[in-house]
From TrEMBL:
Basic and acidic residues bias (residue ranges): 151-160
The UspA domain, residue ranges: 1-149, 172-311
Name of the protein described by the UniProt record: Universal stress protein
Region of interest: Disordered: 50-70, 151-170
Organism listed in the record: Streptomyces neyagawaensis
Protein family according to the UniProt entry: Belongs to the universal stress protein A family.
Superkingdom of this protein's organism: Bacteria
Length: 314
């Protein structure tokens, strides 16, 4: 069975934007799309799906939906039908679940290529305001999680034409990768390279200048001394090795490395304004402290102007 591009849907504007983004991603990856709604019962006269807050609750109430019954399934079917109309080449499935939103979404992500979730848009300012469910799922799910803001559109992912207008007919903006060179995991790098290859666009790698030279080599390595590693699945590769190997695997992806001084989160947020996708990592931690998002990833999630993919890695 192929993996799916899975998206959480609750009827809110932010989840509808996530569904539209996920449909485009499913088309790029030639994978099925799965719409998932999680109904979380509460001890109130009117149940609600709290995945993304009051706007979703109001939307369900306006349709007379008070439980995970026929009304909820109808809204989910209507959303799926709309995706089929707009993206006839994408296979669309749907699933209605009942339980805790965070737990059910994590389970739904296990067999997914990635999980997309909506995030509140900032009023008047480009960026994300990530709700508690989105943050929890991004911090605990071992599949990639993509957060999409409410006002995200296909045009935002593309470069402007000579007249200054952007549309789906112009090339994609770059994919931006925020890389912690102390932990250059191949899973994170591969996701970013694949995303750039699917979009036929540049990969901008932003990293710490203290660890890498702009040429993608260690501070004391020349082009002739970078080893040629065909396997990038191990943990022992240094940052230069891993990048060099993936450049060979994805020869059509142009890689631009940047190592600006200052705070990494600030540079990634700035780069997101000209990006189709921002990719950041989350280390999988098995400790009494539990899973959590690092400060850079957390800041990027809250302030990026483009969809953000959080990729768990060792």
């Amino acid at each position: 069975m192929p993996r799916t591009v899975t998206v959480g849907f609750d009827g809110s504007p932010e989840s509808r934007a996530a569904v539209e983004w996920a449909a485009r991603e499913a088309r790029l990856r030639a994978l099925p799309l799965l719409l998932v709604n999680v109904w979380e019962p509460v001890p109130e006269p009117m149940g609600r799906s709290p995945m993304l807050g009051p706007s979703a609750q109001q939307g369900w109430a306006e349709h007379g939906v008070t439980s995970a019954g026929p009304g909820a399934r109808r809204i989910l079917r209507d959303a799926a039908d709309e995706v089929r109309r707009r993206h006839p080449d994408v296979e669309v499935g749907l699933e209605q679940l009942t339980g805790r939103a965070t737990e059910e979404l994590q389970k739904a992500a296990v067999d997914a290529e990635l999980l997309a979730l909506g995030s509140h848009g900032r009023s008047g300012v480009a960026g994300l305001l990530v709700g508690s469910v989105g943050l929890h799922v991004a911090a605990h799910t071992e599949r990639p999680v993509v957060l999409v803001r409410a006002d995200e559109s296909a045009d935002d992912e593309h470069t402007p034409d000579p007249s200054g207008a952007a549309s789906a007919g112009t090339p994609f903006r770059p994919v931006v990768l925020g890389l912690d060179v102390a932990h250059p995991d191949a899973t994170l790098l591969r996701f970013a390279f694949e995303a750039a290859a699917l979009r036929n666009t540049t990969l901008r790698v932003v990293h710490d200048p203290a660890h890498w030279s702009p040429a993608g080599r260690g501070p004391h390595e020349s082009a002739d001394t970078v080893p040629d590693h065909g396997d990038v699945h191990g943990d022992s590769l240094g940052p230069a090795d891993a990048l060099h190997a993936l450049r060979q695997e994805f020869p059509d992806v142009e890689v631009v490395e940047e190592s600006p001084p200052g705070k990494a989160a600030d540079h990634l947020v700035a780069a997101s304004r000209e990006a189709s996708l921002v990719v950041v990592g989350r280390r999988v931690r098995h400790s009494p402290l539990g899973a959590h998002l690092g400060p850079v990833t957390h800041a990027v999630l809250h302030h990026a102007a483009a969809p953000v993919a959080v990729v768990a890695h060792s």
